[in-house]
Structures are given as C-alpha cells and as structure tokens.
Amino acid sequence: MELPGAVEKVNVVNVFLGTSGDHGQMSPSASYPFSMLSIGPVTTPHIHTGYEYYAKKYNGFVHTHLEGVGCTGSGGNILIKPILNGNIQTELIKQSQQGRPGYYEVSFKNGIKSEMTVAHNFGLHKYHFPQNKNELFIDLSYALSGRFVNEEHTLSDNSISGWIDTKTTCSRGIYRIYYCLEVPGCQSITEVGEHKLLIEGNKTADLQVYIGFSSVNTDYAKERVKKNSFQQVRSSAETQWNKLLNQIQVTGEDDRVNLFYSLLYRGLQAPYLISEEDGTYTAIDGSVQHSSDAIYNGWAIWDNYREQLPMLSLFYPDQYGDIAKSIANLYPYGKDNWATKHEPSPTVRTEHAMVVLLDAWEKGYDIPLDEIKVFLLDEAEHLDYGAPDKALESSYDCWALSRILKITGDDDLSEKYRQKAMEYKTYWLKDFADLTKNDIDRMQARGLYQGTIWQYRWFVPFDVAGLKQLAGGEDAFIQQLDRFFDENNYNHANQPDLQVPGLYNATNEPWKSQKLFRELLLDTVVQCYFNNNSKGIDPYVGRIYKNQPRAYLRTMDDDAGTMSSWFVLRSLGLSAVNVGEPVYYLTAPIFQSVKLDWGNGKIFDIKVKNYNKDNFYIKSVKLNGETLTRNWLTHQEIINGGELVIETSEVPNKSWGVE
C-alpha cells in the first residue's frame, strides 16, 4: 500500500548509475529489497558485478550480485544464455536495453529479447525468440572471477535443483546457495558438459524460467517458485520498491531528486534476508537453525558501518532491528573478520560489528548484549594493533566494548577497555602527530590499508575532544583541518576519512562543514588518490556524484551501499557524529523540503526557509517552533516526529552551532 501523497519513485531511479568502469561497480540487475537473488547480465568486458554499460557482447544472465565491492567482485551464479539452433556459441549483441527497480530488459540483434523480474529470493525470466525453436544454455559452474568451488544437481522433466558452493569476495570464504530452476513445458534437459546443460524449449517463440533460492535446502527453494504472471511479479516488485523509497520524500530540483532516489535505491540492496518464512535458516557454521526473528546475511561491515547501516537504522527501523540482531547472531556461530567457509549468501567482512551493535542499542534496538558478551570479549583480545591505522580502529572497537560492558553492568571490565581505548593517544603521537615527514601523503605508508597518514590521523570519532588536545588545541586542530582540505589531501574514493569533512562541526567553525558537504555532494572538487597511487598522479577535477554510468570517482567502489548512503544522509542535512552514539550533525539539505514517514503515524518534516538551491550556510534553525542553537539532533528527537525549519543564507552565520 502506498503512503499518502506518494509518487512513483521507481520512475526516477536510474539503475544504470555506476555501471561503467571502476566508477561505483554497480549492476543494473532486476533486484528486490534485501534479496540475495537478483538477475542481471554478464557482458564482455565487464566490471566487478559482471556488467559494463558500454559493452555490446553479452554472455548471458546470472542470479547473484554483491554490489560495489572490491577484489574483482563476488557472485555471478547460474549463468543462463538464450541460444539459437542449438548453438551454444550464439552471439548475443545488444541492440537496446532498459531497466528500472525490479526489472531488466535487453533486445539483441539476432531477434532474441530477454526480460527478467524478481520477488524475494525468486526470479522470473521471459525470453522471446525469432523462431519457434527456443533453447537455453545453463552453466552451473559460472561465477565471477572464477570463484566456483563445487555443485550438485538433480534433473527432472522440467526442472533443475541442487546447491552451488562459491568463494565469496576476495576468496576469503565460501557461500552455498540452494536453488530450484523450472522451465514449464520444456521438451528436455540434457547434460552437455561438466556442470553444463541444454534446455530444449516448448517449440513456441516464448519461454519462461522460474528460479527460487534458499540458504537451507532445495525444498525451500522450490517453495519460492510461484507461477504468477510476469506482470504480477514485476508490479509487486515495483510496489515494494516504492514503499521503501517513499519513506523519504524530498522536493527540489529534478536532477537532485533523481540522483537522491537512485542512490537511496543502492543503499537498500544488502544485507540479504535469508531466513525462511517459518524461521529456518543456515548459520555461518553451516548448521541449520531456527529463529523467531528475521535473519539477514551478506555483510560489508568494515565499509558500511560508517554510512549505510546508520542510514538504515534511522530510516528503516522495521528492517533494521532484525539486521542488527543478525549481526549479534554471528558471534555464537563463529564470526570471523571475513567470511567463513559456510556462509549462506555472498558476504565480505565484519570488522567493527561491536560498534554497530552499540549504535543499535543506543538507538533503542533490542540487542542481546548479555548473551554475546563473552564472544565480544574474545574478539577484543584478538584486535590488531600492528599498523598505525589498525591501532586507531582497534581503539574504536575497545571504546564500543567499554560502553557495551557498562550497559551490561560490568563496570570494572568497562573501565579496563575504556583505558585500553584511550591508549590510542600513544599510537597517535607516535605516527600521526608529526606532519613534517615526507610520507604523510603516501598511500599505504607505514603499513596503512587504503589510506595515508593524513587521512587516517583523524580517525578517532569516539574522542574528538582528546584528538583536539593531541593536535595542539582548538585553533591548531582547525588549522590542520584547513591544511588537509586546502592541499587536497581528502580522499572520497575510499572510506578511511569519510567522516573528516564533518569534523568542523565539532569545532567553533561549523560553517566550514556546511560548505564542504555542499561541495562534495554537488560541486567541483579536486581529488588526488585513486586505488593505491599517491598524491599528484593525474588528479581529478569535477563532481564526485553523477547520475550516469560513470557515476563516481575512478576506483571509488560503492561498497554495498556505503558511498551512496553517505550522499543520502548528507543531502538531507544529517550525518552521524560518531557511530555508537545516537546523535546526528545538522547541515543544510540540498532540497526544499524533506519528509521522513515511518508509516507509524510519526512524521519528521524538514523545511528550508528562504530556499535557494545555491545556499548552503545555516542562518537559524527551529525545532518544533523552538529556536535551536546547537548543530545536532538526537536519534530520538528525529524519530519522535516533528518539524525542523532550517533557514539558509549566502553567507555563514559564524555564531550558530558553536555550543
């Protein structure tokens, strides 16, 4: 059911955003919110999701896509290729294509037309052939980057069912998918090679394929297969996408609105709801379990704990409670920093899960902290301090654990880990204080991961007051921030310094964050770091976020919705102060109005007074009619509903937000 006043948001989502080159690593596949099954094309050549927007040669269509991740990608299971005259080498050359949430279509020069749509862990292909001899080639061993491990399958008159094991991202773990694939009315299914099959169709010009997925067994996968019409499935997918997209309603310039919903769409792909309707699911040790809560999997927490998970926690509480509990539920079954050998879906990594769990608890979500405390303590004892960046990140985890232990009543242990967290100061003074060394702007100097000394030195979100003191006090801290941005040391192509543009909000010059956010969201910037190159090699000058196939900076992966969610939150004028604390900084939205509607009768309205699309400085703010002089809101203030009026100006009000 649509929300009151809702418009068809699926009409403005660009599913081709970020689908060319190393500019987002996204897929145009037909997808469904939080579903591990999505159907999309494989092209030659292709990016990490198997597709390249400008490629014309297609290899077929696959059913798993972990969006925007590195290590040359993950997924790409069960390749289906429509062919002519029994020729497996049939060339599929693109003539035209279109896509929207829940739907993808491509027509080929040889007369074949392919359409696909999806429901939750269910997909439906529809093929039109130029003749009454329709056939499909199936490769059960296909996987992106050659990550296939093993499979077993069973054939019947018109179906294939079984399981497939595949290495997940960076080949650090293995996931198993159970499936059931049905082709109603087909004449035969025959083996034509190891793991490869040929389906002779129904001697008409059209052929449909139904496929269901499960993390548990093939019986559940078969239950997913519904013989609804193609249009019914497609309409249902669009309804579900509209429902989620409409929970945030924005008004403003069309180009901004279209970009916003295209990026919000990217933030709602993962994690995946993997439990069955009766609560059965496969845990990460391979055991079959049962839960009264919905269970999710498919994690990229090291990346998206910073942005996508906080975004979900604010806008999608109905899903997020179970998502957060699912993260807690990893611990009893052998959580590792990366994927295990028995994942129920493609996944990447789970560092900083304890920060996410603290954040969820502080926002009012019911997390079984007492039940997993022993596992959290064990994880803390194995934290890595072996490199300067690891030392800061591990200190953040210790800070979160200290807070968790305080919640569970373990005051002595809480104090132990608080002190352990504060030891970051020793590491910071050793590696990050001195800005005169010649390696401070060199990628991966001193063993750093995906960043520079300049970029990592700010990563103390849990103790900005202490960081200021280490930097020499308020004025010195601001001067160093100024230099960081003036010299173009900030890197939006990766995650380590994503929070830094917001740090002015924690100083007596918050107006500088107001300006920076607008530039990073919509304006021309200079960016100097791509992948592992250091500064000064072919810098980029232009916009970071663009609503086109080459959407992002080069080498800027979306990382399971991380970078999209960064835009979504800040475009509304909100950003997490410190993940683990239920507080958001306030800056100017890029829209004239914003409405957050959770469907529970509470609505939070953000209105921009004296709106001008080019104004980004805040002159004054009122919350529910009362003047607000602080530049932050609590999570509770937002979800309680109400009205926030932000008056913007061409010039900064240097006295606002400095409390």
TrEMBL record:
A biological process (GO) of this protein is:
glycoprotein catabolic process
One Pfam family of this chain: Glyco_hydro_92N
Q: Keywords on this record?
A: Calcium
Q: Work out whether the entry's keyword set contains RNA-binding.
A: no
According to the lineage, what is the superkingdom?
A: Bacteria
Q: Which cofactor does it need?
A: Ca(2+)
Q: In what residue span(s) does the Glycosyl hydrolase family 92 N-terminal domain sit? A: 13-195
Q: Which GO terms describe its molecular function?
A: carbohydrate binding; peptide-N4-(N-acetyl-beta-glucosaminyl)asparagine amidase activity
Domain Glycosyl hydrolase family stretches: 222-366, 390-648
Self-association and partners:
Monomer.
Q: What's the protein name? A: Alpha-mannosidase
